[in-house]
Amino acid sequence: QVQLVESGGGLVQPGGSLRLSCAASGFTFNNYAMAWYRQALGKERELVATISWTGHSTNYADSVKGRSTISRDNFKNMVYLQMNNLKPEDTAVYYCNAVSGGYVYWGQGTQVTVSS
Predict the structure, then answer these.
(1) How far apart are CA 19 and CA 44, in angstroms?
(2) Could you tell me where the beta strands, DSSP code E, fall in the chain?
(3) Residue 102: CB partners within 8 Å, gap ≥ 6?
(4) Share of the chain above pLDDT 70, in %
(5) Whole-angstrom distance, CA of residue 79 vs CA of residue 53
(6) What is the rounded CA–CA span in Å between residue 54 and residue 32?
(7) CB proximity list for 37: less than 8 A, separation 6 or greater
């Protein structure tokens, strides 16, 4: 059974930091590129960051570039998103995503709210 379980979301003040985690199981994690997406209320889901299966290649949306770092641990089957200097516009549900060939998996999401 494939599972992607996100954690680490919550309420944080502007300028604060959060580290999101995604625990993967039920598939060969090392074979999958991983990504974080987010969806704000009333908006379409958007790509935040991606990381290759080796972890050597990463890409970021312009909106989070310089403030966020995606990483993975292929021994623990985990992927992370460190977000710093958070802004109210970062408020969204954040989803973990796994892609390999024609296979795409999604987590249930974790809410991040940036507000004073």
Answers:
(1) 23
(2) 3-7, 10-12, 18-25, 33-39, 46-51, 58-60, 68-73, 78-83, 92-100, 103-106, 110-114
(3) none
(4) 100
(5) 11
(6) 9
(7) 45, 46, 47, 48, 94, 95, 97
- Residues near 75 by beta carbon (within 8 Å), at least 6 away in sequence: none
How far apart CA 72 and CA 106 sit, in angstroms, is 16
Give residue 101's pLDDT.
87
Q: What is the pLDDT of residues 64-94, one digit of tens each?
A: 999 999 999 999 999 999 999 999 999 999 9
Looking at residue 59, its pLDDT comes to: 98
Residue 34's closest CA among 90, 80, 82? 80
